[in-house]
TrEMBL record, chain A:
This is Phenylacetate-CoA oxygenase subunit PaaI. InterPro entries: Aromatic_CoA_ox/epox, Ferritin-like, Ferritin-like_SF, PaaA_PaaC, PaaC. Coiled coil: none annotated. One of its GO terms (cellular component) is cytosol. GO terms for biological process: phenylacetate catabolic process. It comes from the Bacteria. NCBIfam families: PA_CoA_Oxy3 (TIGR02158). It holds the Pfam family PaaA_PaaC.
Automatic annotation (TrEMBL), chain B:
InterPro entries: Aromatic_CoA_ox/epox, Ferritin-like, Ferritin-like_SF, PaaA, PaaA_PaaC. GO terms for biological process: phenylacetate catabolic process. Pfam families: PaaA_PaaC. This is Phenylacetic acid degradation protein. GO terms for cellular component: cytosol.
């Protein structure tokens, strides 16, 4: 087993959850209703919980005595391997729910496959996370429907968000080298297996929500190889602020 | 209803409270009781909601994953407290939208402590330790208050607040046992939060306009000055454990009265902040009003969607 590839693979899954949680955390206290604030925080908490499990395991695989926090807070931007989708900003609630929904559909399909991983730790993390992620998907899907099939204004706003975020969906299925080796080992999820299902599921809900399924075939990618959007540096300067300003301290 | 009948009802009502019976939303109650409860409970709810902001300010910068999760959970608890307190208020015949309107227009107050900025991570510790500590002292007696929905909400709120208080103390403890920079950060936070925390327990008894009636209705069981003394006596030994110095040169143990003497509170500062001129009043209100206004289209959409669904259901039924 190629330890480096296993480590890279775990990090790429963990980073998705971490960065999405970070984006959701920015919203806490600023949502359109108290109920959505509470739900958004819940999702962020679930994602951080998963993230911690992945990083703890990755640190163990790496065997350099690093902690979950070293991995979460002390890497360079190019070393984060999250998809571009999760780092997109909270432009408005339509973007927040659109981003969440486009990720959640993928995330649940992913978790259902990770459950079958030959790696017992990853399978166990998936088992624990499936219930959480299916709740996230229901929540974000319901909001996409409400906003798509609400007022004329909300329909336009939701459509605008979906149209813009659509460009980041294809990257979810990219398989960098570490993924390919780990798929061959039966450890990683072969995301191509459910790519079609993903687009079917997403399209069905968008239609139900009275929204157009974007036809654009122009996709943007880069996060999985560490080439991020301009937003990422700002996310990290917030997130790493304490660890960078006060190195080697415990909190 | 004749005046005499009302007087009778009032006597029965006061007797029920004296017997420690709970008043429920559908029971008869004097108008003043209803209004006072709406005022106090909504003020409490608003404090929870505005209180999410100073701590929310550090979620994206929390120094570890564990701290980030704990802070998120804490701020989420505050949203939950706001939610049940608004619901408890609604049982008295006022809507959440009306209550928000009162907050946004400045008619309703919220705890002034949240108008101070959170400038370092240690402020997350100081808020938990001191602000939640003072809140508990204020709120524990309310678990036995006369209005049922408020009393029941407070049982849960107090349990969670006491957890937050321990969590805040633990943040401080970690800082105080860390590097000199961390300890300085903790001391600086105590210096800034100590006096506002004392002010949080309200004006002195001589200045407090609501105390007497509130005592009768068990909305208050001890005076502001008694609560403040209790807070100081409980907190000073905790500061000693942390190895921090309370920023009050007049603070000293008074053997005779069995409690601490303390220095003069700057009430001018208190009133300045209460009247809307504290360091963060405008920022907090902008954040709340902004969230509400920017969320209007979302709430409208949810209503419109629910109506469409309902109409479709009816169409199918016919």
């Amino acid at each position: 087993m190629n330890k480096k590839h296993l480590f890279d693979y775990i990090i790429s899954i963990a980073d998705n959850s971490l960065i999405l949680a970070q984006r959701l955390g920015e919203l806490c206290g600023h949502g359109p209703t108290l109920e959505t604030d509470i739900a958004g925080t819940n999702i962020a908490l679930d994602l951080i919980g998963q993230t911690r499990n992945y990083y703890q395991y990755a640190a163990q695989i790496q065997g350099e005595g690093k902690t979950e926090d070293d991995l979460a807070f002390l890497r360079l931007e190019r070393e984060y391997k999250n998809v571009l989708l999760v780092e997109q900003p909270n432009e408005h609630f339509g973007y927040v729910m659109g981003r969440q929904f486009l990720f959640d559909v993928y995330h649940l399909l992913f978790m259902n496959e990770l459950l079958k991983s030959k790696d017992e730790t990853l399978a166990a993390i998936a088992k624990k996370g499936i219930k959480e992620v299916s709740y996230h998907k229901r929540f974000s899907g319901d909001w996409v429907k409400r906003l798509g099939d609400g007022t004329e204004e909300s329909n336009q706003k939701m459509q605008e968000a979906i149209d813009e975020l659509w460009a980041y969906t294809d990257e979810l299925f990219d398989q960098p080298e570490a993924d390919k080796t780990m798929i061959a080992e039966g450890v990683a999820v072969d995301t191509l297996k459910f790519k079609e299902t993903y687009y079917e599921e997403v399209s069905t809900l968008l239609k139900e929500a009275n929204l157009q399924v974007p036809e654009s075939k122009y996709f943007i990618r880069g996060g999985k190889t560490g080439v991020h959007s301009e937003f990422m540096g700002y996310i990290l300067s917030d997130m790493q602020y304490m660890q960078r300003t006060y190195p080697n301290m415990e909190w | 209803m004749s005046n005499e009948q009302i007087k009778n009802l009032e006597e029965i009502f006061e007797a029920r409270i004296a017997r420690d019976e709970k008043i429920e939303p559908k029971d008869w109650m004097p108008e003043k009781y209803r209004k006072t409860h709406i005022r106090q409970m909504s003020q409490h709810a608003h404090s929870e909601i505005v209180g999410m902001l100073p701590e929310g300010n550090w979620i994206s910068r929390a120094p570890s994953l564990r701290r980030k999760a704990a802070l998120l959970a804490k701020v989420q608890d505050e949203a939950g407290h706001g939610l049940y307190l608004y619901s408890a208020c609604e049982t008295l015949g006022i809507s959440r939208d009306e209550l928000y309107e009162q907050l946004h227009s400045g008619k309703a107050k919220y705890s002034s402590i949240f108008n101070y900025p959170t400038v370092t991570w240690a402020d997350m510790g100081a808020i938990g330790w001191l602000v939640d500590g003072a809140a508990i002292i204020n709120q524990v007696p309310l678990c036995n208050t006369s209005f049922g929905p408020y009393a029941r909400a407070m049982v849960r709120v107090c349990k969670e607040e006491s957890f937050h208080q321990r969590q805040g103390f633990e943040i401080m403890h970690k800082l105080c046992n860390g590097t000199p920079e961390q300890k300085d950060m903790a001391q600086d936070a105590l210096n800034r939060w100590w006096w506002p925390s004392l002010m949080m327990l309200g004006p002195t008894d001589a200045e407090s306009i609501h105390t007497e009636q509130s005592m009768k209705w068990k909305l208050k069981r001890k005076s502001n000055d008694e609560l403040r003394q209790q807070f100081i006596d409980q907190t000073v030994p905790q500061a000693d454990v942390l190895g921090l110095t309370i920023p009050d040169k007049d603070l000293k143990w008074n053997e005779e009265k069995g409690s601490y003497d303390f220095g003069e509170i700057d009430w001018d500062e208190f009133w300045q902040v209460v009247k809307g001129h504290g360091p963060s009043n405008k920022k907090r209100m902008k954040a709340r009003v902004g969230a509400w206004e920017e969320g209007a289209w979302v709430r409208d959409a949810a209503m419109a969607h629910a109506e469409k669904k309902e109409a479709n259901k009816l169409k199918k039924a016919i």
